[in-house]
Write a structure and sequence with these properties.
Blueprint (H helix, E strand, L loop, with lengths): L5 H53 L23 E5 L5 E4 L20 E7 L5 E11 L2 E10 H53 L14 H45 L4 H30 L8 H15 L4 E4 L8 E2 L3 H18 L3 E10 L4 E9 L6 H6 L17 H12 L2 E6 L5 E10 L8
Helix pairs in contact: 1-2, 3-4, 4-8, 5-6, 6-8
Length: 456
């Protein structure tokens, strides 16, 4: 689970709530156990008082020397377990063996309706004790019978119980945390499959999102498919409208240009010719941009860059027999271009055509995969042994229609079209000095996965 993922958030949210819930459970169980021990101790001490009260009734001696309890804890000194019988004046009549030489403090406070009173005291040995005293009458003789129990022993048992509870609940918490992580991964697995299906569409391996998904995610897959269909339909309509606009504007512009040429003696003809030429250039510019944007916006297209470049090299070699184009065919691991094949041909073809025009006879073409911090890119390098460009000229030549040498055939729009296509695809085009002495064009484009087709 990676940080920032839903599974990571669900795991730590579940773990946090588990820690709070189990800690609260441990505290509650410990408190309940402590209360149960204290209640049990109180009931035991009251039972001992009742036993002593019955023994005083059966005693044949005035000082109750024959009165005792069977619990051996009342026979050991300084244990916190004592019993004491006092008369109505508060004088001690009889005590347990454990209280000899260590008489606990007398209780203060009022008796309840059952003639009991209780308090927590500390004996001379430092033991915290629970003391219960009852006011009773034995054979017409008023008595006060006090029995105490060691609270430290109960607290020790509570501590042991708390430690064991934390261990058990900790193990349960770890098991539940692991289970929540597994459940989160299993529950989010359909989302991973949906993401992979969308990636296959983006990489061009599939036209639509396919697969079976749970009821909660299935509508999302359908919406994505509907969005793809809508996007394709909109782009198709846009292409048709661009084509209609092009045909609709070309005829009026051509008529104006012809009429202006026919009436050269009229001073207005020069103005009309100039303005129609500007109109024609603007129409061409924006129609090209619309065509480029519409074509490159189609999701799921990809092209085998190696096959495209091999085809372009063969064509350019035939058209320029005096130029040697060195192209080392890359291996099958080279990624494909993520985009339209026609766009790749236009970009690479313009770069090769430009190199052939300025080369003195030698051109080198290389293609490699390049990994950036965010994605994998396809790097196409075209270099020649021509005159090259300075840094200022390299910036100027990318502007639309700019030509540094009017004697060389061409419209000056080649590199500019390449730059526009590169920008649409999120790539880059850099012009540098080549080791051959001329111009080096580095074209970086988004890469797709290898299509798996056998290249011949």
């Amino acid at each position: 689970m990676r940080k920032g993922s839903i599974a990571f958030s669900l795991f730590w949210l579940s773990a946090g709530w588990l820690i709070l819930a189990l800690a609260g459970t441990a505290f509650l169980l410990t408190d309940l156990y402590s209360r149960a021990l204290d209640t049990n101790l109180t009931n035991l001490l009251k039972f001992d008082i009742d036993t002593l009260s019955s023994a005083t009734l059966d005693s044949t001696q005035a000082d109750f020397r024959d009165v005792s309890l069977a619990d051996p804890r009342f026979n050991r000194a300084s244990t916190g377990w004592y019993w004491i019988i006092r008369n109505e004046f508060g004088d001690i009549i009889a005590t347990s063996r454990s209280a000899v030489g260590s008489v606990p403090p007398a209780l203060t406070g009022k008796f309840d309706d059952d003639n009991y009173r209780a308090d927590v005291l500390t004996d001379e040995a430092g033991n915290r004790i629970r003391a219960i005293e009852r006011s009773t009458t034995s054979n017409g003789r008023p008595l006060k019978i006090t029995v105490t129990g060691n609270l430290d022993e109960s607290q020790s048992l509570v501590g042991q119980f708390r430690g064991q509870t934390l261990i058990v609940l900790g193990a349960v918490g770890i098991a539940l945390a692991i289970m929540s992580g597994i459940v989160a991964r299993l529950a989010l697995r359909p989302i991973d499959r949906l993401g992979q299906a969308i990636e296959r569409v983006r990489e061009g391996e599939s036209e639509t999102v396919t697969g079976s998904y749970p009821r909660e995610i299935a509508p999302l897959a359908e919406e994505v498919n509907e969005l793809l269909r809508s996007n394709t339909s909109i782009l198709e309509r846009a292409r048709n409208q661009v084509g209609n606009l092009a045909h609709g504007l070309k005829t009026p512009i051509a008529v104006l240009r012809n009429e202006a040429a026919a009436a050269r003696d009229n001073p207005l003809s020069a103005v009309v010719s100039s303005e129609t030429e500007k109109m024609s250039q603007l129409v061409s510019t924006y129609l090209d941009r619309a065509r480029i944007a519409a074509r490159s916006a189609v999701v799921g297209k990809r092209a085998d860059a190696t096959m495209v470049m091999l085809r372009l090299v063969r064509v350019m070699q035939k058209l320029n027999p005096n130029v040697v184009i060195a192209f080392k065919r890359p291996d099958a691991s080279l990624p494909w271009f993520r985009g339209d094949e026609g766009d790749l041909e236009e970009m690479a073809g313009n770069l090769l055509d430009n190199a052939c025009k300025w080369s003195r006879g030698q051109i080198a073409v290389t293609m490699v995969a390049e990994r950036t911090s965010s994605a994998q890119m396809l790097l196409i390098r075209v270099e020649d042994d021509g005159p090259g460009l300075s840094e200022d000229d390299a910036k100027k030549v990318l502007r639309r229609g700019v030509r540094l040498d009017e004697k060389t055939p061409g419209s000056g729009l080649g590199l500019d079209i390449v730059k526009e296509l590169v920008d649409v695809y999120g790539g880059s085009l850099q012009l540098k000095r080549s080791v051959l002495g001329g111009l080096l064009c580095e074209l970086r484009l988004p890469a797709a996965k290898v299509g798996g087709l056998v290249r011949t």
